[in-house]
Structure formats: structure tokens, C-alpha cells
Amino acid sequence: MRIALFTETFLPKVDGIVTRLSHTVDQLQRMGDQVLVVSPDGGLTEYKGARIYGIPGFPLPLYPELKLAIPRPSLRQVLEDFQPDLIHLVNPAVLGLGGLYYAKSLEVPLVASYHTHLPKYLEHYGLGMLEGVLWELLKAVHNQATINLCTSTAMQEALTSHGIEHVEVWQKGVDTELFQPDLASQEMRSHLTQGHPDSPLLLYVGRLSAEKEIDRIKPVLQAIPNARLALVGDGPHRAELEKHFADTPTHFVGYMTGQTLATAFASADAFIFPSRTETLGLVLLEAMAAGCPVIAANAGGIPDIVTDGVNGYLFDPLDEGGAIAATQKLLAQQQTRDTLRHNARTEAERWGWAAATRQLQGFYRSVLDQRSMPSAA
To answer: The domain 181-348 belongs to what CATH superfamily?
Structure first.
């Protein structure tokens, strides 16, 4: 198959969507498919054998790390030369509308996927009154696709309840070869705790943005004697968070990738994830693959990954004391922590990227089969 992938974000940006897409592109190319990535220009022209067609963009005012790239007329020739069997829109927005236009214009089947719970993000940026309007816009775009993919059963229910049709769950994936428990390191603990490796180490990895609700980790940190917090990542909310955590032993680590990131996960005592807006939370699977016990809000797609008391702890996101109690319980019982580590790794081993990509290929083939049926009749 020849797949043109339109995405509003790609390498070298670091986030959960890019993680999924980079592994998916790699696996599709390995499996014999050809992929063209159309994305905001990040300086790359190729990835794992796939061509990247970068379009210059400008920073999004509320979120400067994200670029808005407006499709150019030259894109038509690129697509005509590539001759895609289908077009896949990832989180369609500005570039996605271009993909939608060319799918119609070139009569190419269309797949769309939903990865970021944008309507719920709005309230964190003071724009909650626009939620209804955004759902209508999402419905108008997504219902042009033959199939709409999302990343958890909770998101499938949310999209369907708002009138988006033909919604299927694209299964989660994690690199179990990279993320492993045996990477745990005293040197990394010392780095993350700023020289206090024997202190309880709480870890957060992800975007430092308002919708992640990272500020809600502070009471947990304050409730545990000698505990230290490492925040791995960066984003538009960093300055506010530095003020918020100024009187606590919190280390703003910045970005980590590859084995360095895997070692950070494996070296922490607990991974704290308070966000209520996750469509899935791939970073949770990475933590679990590395044997890092997860304490997360019981919201969105997270319960699809974490089974409370089995491979991590879930807390009621409306209960201020829930995360504190779960973290105290985890740190107080070494045997329980070891069991959770083992079960977390076992769960992660079920979700390799190859299996997730084979499932995606099945969705693609079903769309192509639907396209070919009328002509066969």
C-alpha cells in the first residue's frame, strides 16, 4: 500500500503522537508499504525510508511548540507523483483540511485518527465556551472519512456520542526492547534527585502544558517526607510550573529521549500522571514497560492501560487526597511495589508496535476493500 500521512506534528517534535507516528511509519516501511509524511517543516526530508514533505509553518499563539502549516499548491504535484492508495489524516486541523481536499479532489479513500482531546483542552486555556463549536467542526471533518481511529474505548464512546461515525480503536503500542526494568541506575537516580538517590523519587514525563495538570502533583510531593520530583519534558507552561514548584525539591530536567529516557523511567519509584484529558497516554505504557509503577487519574483512556491495584494505582481525579493516598501506599510497601512493577511490565509486553501496525494495515485494507466493492458490482 502507498499511504500519504497528513499530520499537524512530527519529528523532531517530541510528544505521544509523534512517538506513535514515528514507530508506525517505521513498521509500515518494514512491512513493505510506502509512506509519504506531510507535516510542518522540521528540517527532515526522510525517516526510515519514508519521504517527509515539510511545509513551512508559524507557531500557534497559545502553544508555540506547535506549528500551523498551510497547504501549498505544490502539494498536489507531490501527491500525484506519489499516487497514494489512501490518505490518513492525523488529528486533522489546518494541514488536515488540505489532506481532506486532496482526498476528494484526487478521489483517494480517506482515513482519519483522533489523538488529542482538544475539546477538553479548551477549558485549560480559558476557551471552554467554544467546546460545542469545536465538536461540530471535528464532526464535519471526521465524518468525511471512511473510518475514524481513536486510541481508547473511552475516546470511542466520546466521539460516537458527539456524532462522529465509524469509530474504531487503534490499539496501543510501546517499544518493549527500549523500555526495560533492568536499566535502573543509581547514577540516573542521583541525576533526577539532584544528588539525593536514597530519597523517594517521583517522576513525570510529558508536555509541560496546562491541560496536563502537573501542578496537582505538588500536594503529593509535600505529603511524603524527603520525596523529590523530576519533571522530564518541556512546554508552554514551564515558567508557571517553575514558580508553582519553587519551594519544593523539584528538578526540571528538560527533554530526554531513547535509552536515557528509558533509564529515567526504570530508576524512579513512581510515575505520577494527574491529567484528565488523555486519549490514551502512551507515556504510561513506556513507564510500565520500564517497570515503573504508575499512579494516574482514573479518566479518559488511562483505565484502558492501568488496572487499579494490579499494575498500578488509579485515583479519583476529583479527590484531592486520592493521589496522595495511592502514592503513600505504593512507597510504604516494597513487596507491593515489586508486584506492581512485574505486572506493569507483563502488561506492556502485550502491546508491541508491530502488532499495532498490523492492526492499522487491516483498517487500511478494509477501507480499500470498501472502495473497490461498487466497481466490482
So the answer is: Glycogen Phosphorylase B; (3.40.50.2000)
